[in-house]
Amino acid sequence: MSNAQATVTAYLATQKKTTNKDLAAEWTLIEELYNEKLWNELTIKLVTFVRHESLQDETALLQLYQNFLSTFETKINPYGLIQILEVVVDNISDKKEAIEFLEKMKDKVKICDEAVWYLQVMQGNLYLSNLNDLNATKKIIEELRDVLEEAGNVTPVHGKYYMLASQYYRRVGKHSDYYRCGLQFLGCSLDDFPRDQWAQQAFFLGLAALLGDGVYNIGELLAHPILESLKGTENEWLVELLKAFNTGDINKYCTFTTYRMNPRSNISISPLRFNDMKKIWSGIPDLAAQEVKLRQKISLLCLMEMTFKRSAIERAISFTDIAHETKLPAKEVELLIMKALALDLVRGEIDQVAGVVNMSWVQPRVLNRNQIAGMASTLDTWMGAITNMEKLMENRAAEILTN
After folding, report:
1. Residue-wise pLDDT tens digits, 121-137
2. How do 356-362 and 316-318 pair as beta strands?
3. Dist. CA 277–CA 252, nearest whole Å
4. What is the end-to-end Cα distance of the chain in Å, rounded?
5. Helix (H), strand (E) at residue 242
């Protein structure tokens, strides 16, 4: 019997002596799988067993690895091995040692790209959450970004990576990057995300949608079921605020702002909106500090909505109409249009003499039901015009052919 085999035998014999009959049975099953060299079945068993409450101790888990797992780690699925080691690493008190431990594992799992990526994400989480090393975290995120984007399909590591990236971007205050990675995470791993954390994630994503530079497709978040988790909570107001921004509803936004500026005014406002103002402007420092930026953003979205609602033959929008809809002074309208054109939110030409902008295109967005209904109505009108033209040509065909 080799030294490794002797170590495993002694280790398993010790573990089976536990007074817990159920736990002893688990160790017996593990021993049988090991002796029969059923590596796949053993890996699946260990992925769950390593989380047993009796093992949630640094010493116990390190003994499991050193006396048992290390003797056959090259024979099992590399990705499964990293899944097991994730629990081991989480329980290592010295996180620098944990990172070094993972670094040594890279050569052992290098035949599996997903295992290496998973290992790097684990290192990134340790740097970010435990060591507060933002530079090391950023380096890992940047190294993995292109690799994962070029992967042929979405892997289980993608969701873990996007969660790491979103946490990093939230920490450093990059709202648009956080929003992008947060949505990508939801698209990959929502089912695995703990339900009790949905509301917090929805809240952070909502704030990022409002504050993020270049984030104008808010409908993408509004269409996601995670926002349902905010219903009935103290942050339910955020959903209504997102809806106002998505449709460029200046009236709703200004009602909120007016109430904030003059809480004793006679504006009719529901209890929800009262809470909205109290939370938004006095409870959320980031929103309060970016009031001017938010006003400009909803003005741009209002202009996009105006363009979207108009038919192709009604895209000449006067500066007066824009000023009325956006509630902006007339002198600021042209600057708003130029900003929208520069950001490629709309396309068109400004006629300063006539005081109009001729719109030809508006950036595609995820639409809500009302916006889709409006688009359907526009298509119906367009189809009606085509039908009328077709009938006109049929009726006048004889004249045209004769002449």
Report:
1. 999 999 999 999 999 99
2. antiparallel
3. 12
4. 106
5. helix 237-246
What amino acid occupies position 15? Q
Show the CA angle centred on residue 11, arms to residues 8 and 12, nearest 5°: 85
Cα gap 281→261, rounded to integer Å: 10
pTM (two decimals): 0.83
Token duo for residue 267: 């504006």
Quick one: pLDDT band at residue 268, thresholds 50, 70, 90? very low
Residue 123 identity: Q
Residue 314 CA: distances (Å) to CA of 326, 337, 357: 18, 17, 11
Tokens of 228: 């349902």
For a pLDDT cut of 90, what percent of the chain falls above it? Answer: 67
Side chain identity at 272, as an amino acid letter?
L
**Cα separation, 152 vs 207, whole angstroms:** 32
- β-pairing, 346-351 vs 316-318, is unpaired
Q: Taking the CA atoms of 318, 319, 321 and 322 in sequence, report the sign of the dihedral they define.
A: positive
Among residues 169, 140, 176, 134, which one has the least CA distance to residue 157?
Answer: 140
Nearest to 362 by CA among 305, 299, 321, 287: 305
CA distances from 296 to 161, 262, 303, 340 (A): 33, 21, 11, 10
Average pLDDT, the chain: 87
DSSP structural state of residue 283: I
Look at residue 240 in the predicted model and tell me its pLDDT.
87
pLDDT at 402: 61
Rounded to 5 degrees, what angle do the CA atoms 22, 28, 30 make? 105
Q: How far apart are CA 323 and CA 18, in angstroms?
A: 78
Question: Which residues are CB-contacts of 219 (< 8 A; sequence separation ≥ 6)?
Answer: 246, 365, 366, 367, 368, 371
Q: Which of 143, 52, 55 is nearest to 91 (CA)?
A: 55
